[in-house]
Write a structure and sequence with these properties.
There is one protein chain. The longest helix is centred in the last third of the chain and has 19 residues. Helix 1 packs across helix 9, helix 11 packs across helix 12 and helix 13 crosses helix 15. By secondary structure, this protein is of the alpha+beta class. It starts with a strand and ends in an 8-residue tail after the last helix. It is built from 17 helices and 19 strands. The protein has three domains: about 160 residues, FAD/NAD(P)-binding domain (3-Layer(bba) Sandwich), CATH 3.50.50; about 160 residues, D-Amino Acid Oxidase, subunit A, domain 2 (D-Amino Acid Oxidase, Chain A, domain 2, 2-Layer Sandwich); about 110 residues, no CATH class. Bound molecules: flavin-adenine dinucleotide (FAD). The site of flavin-adenine dinucleotide (FAD) has 39 residues, from helix 1, strand 7, strand 10 and strand 15.
Length: about 550
């Protein structure tokens, strides 16, 4: 067991809530430790659609959530401009839609009151012909559409740069560190945690004045280990990824139960999501079912008839850490959040936790969480996370000029600038010094060897799945069939892994990819998977990932 260290605050959970909170705590001068049992963005945040919208759908039940989300979306856009994608939504109205187009337009007029807070444009009403002109794949059998102007963000990079910023402000930041136990004094107050590094097996005890649980849907179970109760109503959601872009805009359709679902361009792919169902299963093994996939396809097919012609390359499933409420339909559950001081609630001092919320207001949640920590510690320092850019967000990149300066392909610079902002130059400098590092490791997503080495050296990537989250290596149509061996070799080289460890890393990565493919295997997908299996077995001899 390693020796004890003393922190002001330990933040448990490296999702968007925990990384945002650790950043804020560190920026306010608190001696901070951030731990995650997997990786930053390895939980629910890594399965979300990344919309930092104002929560149009919450307008009916939860106007505050809409307003707060819009304000925070505006701040997030300012501090991480490089990670954003702007995406107009088309809410398609058909003859059998629940309401006439005038109703949707009136609804959007109400939403228009908030959109300026997040730098969005007011809605536009489009006729049938106008919709077909800009989105030719939509069924001609429609009445028209109403637009909304939304923003999305890369959730993986958002967590990575929040963790990085926390570290650059002095925090001790550790992924692959599982909290096993809470350390307590004789009165039962929490004094820290016992953590295990799941890659090395090393166990250490870390003490702190405040321990803050930001473990998403795992929070109730962790709180119970600390002897307190946090109630949630976890709700599972899935997203499907098609192997190419099939729409120009985000196309909103109505599902069989009246819920709204959406298909939208996302990186080189199309994302379709999402579902929302009460979840009672294993949080460490959340998988999608065929029925859930069918539910989404059926909904989109009604407005986008050719949707089944594209290949589904992957399904992602996660669990929302929603606040507990008895009775409402899942979709109507509040997206508000609560911060609990367990001294007031359960007489256990030294422990705070957070439940609920959403990515779109993560910064505000983190600010309020840090305010609560500071109050307990008697620290009076103002929050600056709405003003200080996240790493890479300090300066706009002129991609053409940078491509010329480094004599690099524009598509590579474009992707590097999207993921790393102004820090893309650090990676391009590596290529300038050693041109061999400019080789593409992943061809589906243009990821260079330099970027892989950079995120291992500077962003704590320790596994192939960490590399996928930081760079999108293995996220494209081949789902790692071509790049995973090469990426494993680079990982092994950087981390000094033995050949057996590199092979194990590669097998583990393929196993994770398999989880996302299993629910969609039929027809052409099955043939594609058989080809993949042949490649794996020939090149890597992995019996454990056989069909
Ligand atoms: C399908 C889907 C789509 C969504 N789309 C959107 C959207 O478009 N916009 C939006 O605003 N919101 C969206 N959400 C909601 C949003 O994703 C969540 O509200 C948010 O990501 C929760 O973040 P978190 O940090 O609280 O939890 P998580 O991301 O789950 O982070 C918790 C972390 O705690 C770690 N952890 C757990 N136990 C331990 C332990 N014992 N020791 C150490 N670490 C531990 C986990 O590994 C995990 O990384 C969506 C959710 C889903 C499921």
């Amino acid at each position: 067991m390693a020796g004890k260290s003393m922190y002001d605050v330990i933040v448990i959970g490296g999702g968007v809530t925990g990384t945002g909170t650790a950043r804020d705590c560190a920026m306010r001068g608190l001696n901070t430790l951030l731990v995650d049992k997997r990786d930053f963005c390895g939980g629910t945040t890594g399965t979300c659609m990344g919309m930092i919208h104002g929560g149009l759908r919450y307008l009916l039940h939860d106007v505050d959530t809409t307003r707060i989300s819009c304000i925070d979306s505006g701040y997030i856009q300012r501090i991480a401009p490089h990670l954003l994608f702007r995406i107009p939504f088309l809410t398609i109205v058909t003859k059998d839609s629940s309401f006439p187009i005038d109703f949707y337009e009136t609804y959007m007029e109400a939403y228009d009151r908030f959109v300026h807070l997040k730098g969005g444009k007011k809605h536009t009403r489009l006729s049938r012909d106008e919709v077909l002109e800009i989105e030719p794949g939509v069924s001609p059998n429609i009445v028209g559409a109403v637009t909304t102007d939304e923003w999305g963000i890369n959730p993986f990079r958002l967590c990575a740069v929040n963790a990085l910023s926390a570290s650059e402000h002095g925090a001790d930041v550790r992924n692959h560190c599982l909290v096993r136990e809470f350390l307590k004094d004789s009165a039962g107050n929490v004094q820290g945690v016992a953590v295990e590094n799941t890659l090395t097996g090393e166990v250490s005890e870390e003490t702190a004045r405040i321990t803050f649980i930001a473990a998403g849907p795992w929070t109730p179970a962790l709180a119970a280990r600390a002897g307190v109760e946090v109630r949630m109503r976890p709700a599972k959601g899935i997203n499907i990824f098609l192997d190419r872009r099939i729409t120009n805009y985000a196309v909103v359709a109505m599902a069989v139960d009246g819920r709204q679902v959406v298909a939208m361009p996302y990186e080189n792919a199309t994302m379709i999501g999402c579902t929302d169902d009460d979840y009672y299963g294993d949080l460490d093994n959340v998988t999608a079912t065929n029925d859930e996939v069918e539910y989404l396809l059926q909904a989109l097919e009604r407005v986008f008839p050719t949707i089944r012609q594209a290949r589904i390359m992957r399904v992602m499933a996660g669990v929302r850490p929603t606040l507990y409420e008895w009775k409402p339909y899942e979709d109507d559950l509040s997206r508000e959040y609560e911060i609990y001081d367990h001294k007031n609630l359960h007489g256990v001092d030294g422990l705070l936790s957070i439940a609920g919320g959403k990515l779109a207001m993560y910064r505000l949640m983190a600010e309020h969480a840090t305010d609560a920590v500071c109050r307990k510690l008697g620290v009076d320092v103002a929050c600056r996370t709405h003003e200080e850019p996240l790493p890479g967000g300090d300066e706009a990149v002129d991609e053409d000029a940078v491509a010329d300066e480094y004599n690099a392909p524009r598509y590579v610079v474009r992707r590097l600038a999207y993921r790393h902002g102004s820090r893309c130059r650090r990676i391009l400098d590596m290529i300038r010094e050693d041109p061999a590092l400019g080789a593409l490791v992943c061809r589906c997503e243009p990821v260079t060897e330099a970027e892989i080495r950079y995120v291992i050296r500077h962003e704590m990537a320790r596994t192939l799945d960490d590399l996928r989250r930081r760079t999108r290596v293995g996220s494209g149509p081949c789902q790692g069939a071509r790049c995973n061996f090469l990426a494993a070799a680079i990982l092994a080289d950087e981390l000094n892994l033995a050949p057996g460890q590199a092979l194990a890393a590669s097998a583990e990565f393929l196993q994770q990819r398999w989880k996302g493919k299993a629910p969609i295997l039929r027809g052409d997908n099955l043939a594609q998977e058989e080809l993949n299996q042949a490649i794996y077995n020939l090149a890597g001899n992995y019996p454990e990932v056989a069909l």
